[in-house]
Amino acid sequence: MRHFSRLFSVMAGPRPVVCSGPSGVGKSTLLKKLMKEYEGVFGFSISHTTRKPRPGEQNGIDYHYVTRDVMQAGIDKGDFIESVQSKNLICLLDIDMQGVKNIKKTDLNPMFISIQPPSMEILEKRLRGRKTESEESLQKRLQTAKIEMEFSKEPGAFDVIIINDNLDDAYAKLKDALKEEIDKVKKVSS
Ligand SMILES: Nc1ncnc2c1ncn2[C@@H]1O[C@H](COP(=O)(O)OP(=O)(O)OP(=O)(O)O)[C@@H](O)[C@H]1O
Q: Is the CB of 28 under 6 A from ligand 1?
């Protein structure tokens, strides 16, 4: 029995990972570090995002810019997640609260990780420091952040909560949460 369940989990591929959290909390910073350290382990380095490219970002390199409809259709069908999984790669998704709710309706069973700021004041400071937002979009993001933080408190919303205070500490916690899946991928590949 153990043999079969192991075989099945290998055949299904590694469990996808969903990272979510308010804009400016440091998701891209953390995920880029992870991709760099574990080349060939994660199959989906760039997030599908519906926001407009920032100066210096290139479609398909930093992010895939897609319309909300296209992204929704892809997620609903489980297309890109399953194709990544079948290649023995961890599908890493950086998505917003709505995306998290949508994926919860599928049977993809990802690990849900919430990246959170130490405080709203620090989140605001990071967003301002990034110098990518107008005052209006900054206020909108902070408003959305409050709703996202409330959602993250709902029981069962996330499997793991990581406070991104000190970057190295948060990164260590992220690696720790993913250790088992990373080891599985490496074992199958070797
Ligand atoms: N632990 C940290 N301490 C201080 N600054 C940080 C930390 N983590 C990230 N930052 C900085 O905060 C800013 C926002 O980070 P980042 O762009 O990674 O956020 P994000 O969550 O990916 O945002 P978005 O969802 O808008 O893409 C960046 O300028 C980044 O360098």
A: yes
Contact present, 96 and 149 (Cβ < 8 Å):
no
> Nearest residue CA, atom 26 of ligand 1?
23
Domain that holds residue 28: 10-189
Q: How far apart are the first and last CA of the chain?
A: 24
CB 65 within 8 A of CB 49: yes
- The reply to whether 172 falls in a domain is yes
pTM exceeds 0.90, yes or no: no
Closest ligand 1 atom to residue 129 Cα is: 29
What distance in angstroms lies between residue 104's CA and the mean position of ligand 1's atoms? 26
Q: Is residue 52 part of a domain?
A: yes
Counting the structural domains of the chain, the total is 1
* Atom 5 (ligand 1) nearest CA: 126
Q: What is the pLDDT of residues 107-121, one digit of tens each?
A: 888 999 999 999 999
Q: CA-CA distance, 132 to 137, in Å (whole number)?
A: 9
Residue 1 lies in a domain: no
Backbone angles phi, psi at 152, to 5 degrees: -65, -20
What are the pLDDT digits (tens) for 20-63?
999 999 998 999 899 889 988 987 644 555 566 667 776 656 55
